[in-house]
Design a protein that fits this description.
This protein is α+β, with helices and mostly antiparallel strands. The chain is built from 21 helices and seven strands. Helix 2 crosses helix 3, helix 7 packs antiparallel against helix 18 and helix 10 runs antiparallel to helix 11.
């Protein structure tokens, strides 16, 4: 066996410094990796030799990439080329669109941990509509209340949690709670930043999708990211033009839906389990029997149905016996699934969308669904002023809707809600539950995920036997096995 580290991400500033100290060269591109790996299937030479050939013949490697991707349709070779992008000064609304692409990695500036300044995007759509003054006035009023709430919430949380306040290292947590609740009044126009890691195949998908977007901010983002990638790796990002599929499909579906649906009153029930796998526990047991035998699945399901409940439980418990808080259930837990209809705040959605193994679709933000007001804001006596800002925001939003085709959502706040449809398999639900029901999780999504778990446990109790937050895992485990797990979550 021979294992070679073929490459890894290097800061572009380091690459530029290295290039300055060496003769001019064309092989500083991830395209050579894509080309050499593409040849593995048909060339018997060791892959390190194939890489050496690609580095010596960069133009030939580029031609090879184009032929393999364009003519042969093997887009997977582009996945070997990976890019890192610093994305700075984009709105929260744009970030939501960027982070829709599931097979990428993102780390985002958190409004929960960083004190916000008054940086916000003024969209071109707002300016063209002649609404800049009223937009800026509204955003500044929201931001002014944010700073006021932050100053009042800090002493509130320190007083409410005196034991933590007595420990200096806990102060950042208390201040973070104040920040995360104050930010509910800030808008989707607030500037953020993120680091994004993306392979060339998904980058091409993003560029093509954004080429058909109407929002000017996304078009500008798209032009810049495409220009940077094309300069480094022109042969593996090919299909980038706007197209009718991305530009028209959802709009035409919405028009058809308007014809089919009569206007209805707003229904604001926040959490509903609208679909789930029938006989989920039996099907989980059947899939475990299937993996562990030579029987076809249909026969395993028949046997699972005939087993006593105690025997089914014993088999499911065996899957958890050696599990620690950082482990997730076996892959067989991906067969049972659940679909939820959720009404969530923008703050909650920002966290929910990070669970990329799930299937998540969303309606537009809708002031008719109300807003989520942090309990702490009411407890410090600021709910009235909070709602006054919300009412003014809604008034301005209505004015913008009259004048603009798109971009009206920029003015809405993190408290405003949208309806989403979320489908998860049971294994991913465990991931959501461990992370979002934990004591350290943000209260809004903690409440949503806790109710999701409760509804799931009603329908598939064996499958959901150890659902719960990370901090609760030791007691959950002990409740099933009569003794604590080997490892405990860190304090």
């Amino acid at each position: 066996m021979k294992i070679i580290l073929a490459g890894y991400n290097v800061d572009s500033e380091v690459l530029e410094d290295l290039k300055k100290c060496s003769p001019p060269r064309e092989d500083v591109t991830p395209e050579t990796l894509s080309a050499s790996y593409a040849r593995i299937s048909r060339d018997p030479r060791p892959v390190d030799e194939l890489r050496a050939v690609s580095r010596k013949e960069v133009e030939r490697a580029r031609r090879s990439n184009r032929n393999i991707i364009f003519k042969m349709g093997h887009h997977s070779v582009a996945e070997h080329a990976v890019f890192n992008f610093d994305i700075i000064g984009v709105s929260r609304l744009a970030i939501e669109e960027i982070e829709k692409f599931r097979l990428c990695s993102y780390t985002e500036k958190s409004q929960r941990y960083i004190t916000l300044r008054d940086d916000f995007v003024i969209p071109e759509e707002i300016q063209k509509a002649g609404m800049k003054d009223v937009f800026v006035k509204t955003i500044k009023a929201q931001n002014a209340l944010y700073h006021k709430l932050l100053e009042e919430l800090k002493p509130y949380f320190f007083e409410k949690h005196r034991r933590m306040a007595a420990i200096p290292k806990e102060h950042s947590i208390l201040e973070g709670w104040a920040k995360e609740d104050a930010r509910y009044v800030t808008s989707l126009a607030i500037e953020g930043q993120l680091g994004m890691t993306i392979n060339a195949r998904n980058l091409e998908h993003m560029i093509r999708r954004f080429a058909s977007k109407k929002l000017t901010e996304l078009k500008e983002f798209n032009q810049k990211i495409y220009g940077l990638a094309k300069e480094v790796a022109p042969s593996i990002i090919l299909f980038t033009e706007a197209n009718d599929f991305d530009a028209k499909t959802y709009g035409e579906i919405q028009e058809k839906a308007r014809q089919l649906l009569k206007p209805e009153r707003e229904i604001t029930k926040r959490i509903s389990l609208v679909d789930h796998t029938p006989e989920a526990d039996n099907k989980l047991v059947a899939s475990l029997l299937h993996t562990s035998s030579s029987l076809p699945y249909e026969e395993c399901l028949k046997k699972a149905r005939r087993l006593k409940l105690a025997d089914k439980r014993a088999l499911v418990e065996q899957t958890f016996k050696h599990m620690e808080f950082y482990d997730f259930p076996l892959r067989e837990f991906e067969y049972p699934s659940l679909t939820y209809d959720l009404v969530v705040s923008a703050s909650c959605f920002a966290q929910l969308k990070r669970h990329r193994v799930a299937t998540l679709t969303a309606q537009d933000y809708n002031p008719g669904l109300g807003v989520t007001v942090p309990p702490s804001v009411a407890e410090i006596g600021e709910k009235k002023e909070f709602m006054e800002i919300i009412e003014e925001t809604n008034r301005v939003y209505s004015l913008l809707k009259e004048k603009m085709e798109c971009g009206t959502e920029y003015v809405l706040t993190n408290a405003h809600r949208r309806r989403v449809l979320l489908k998860v398999n049971a294994r991913e639900l465990y991931h959501i539950s461990r992370l979002r029901e934990d004591a350290t999780a943000q209260w809004d999504i903690r409440g949503i995920s806790g109710e999701m778990s409760r509804l799931a446990q009603e329908k598939m109790p064996l499958t959901c036997l150890l659902l719960g937050g990370k901090n609760a895992y030791p007691s959950l485990y002990e409740g099933v096995f009569g003794q604590p797990p080997k490892f405990f979550p860190p304090e």
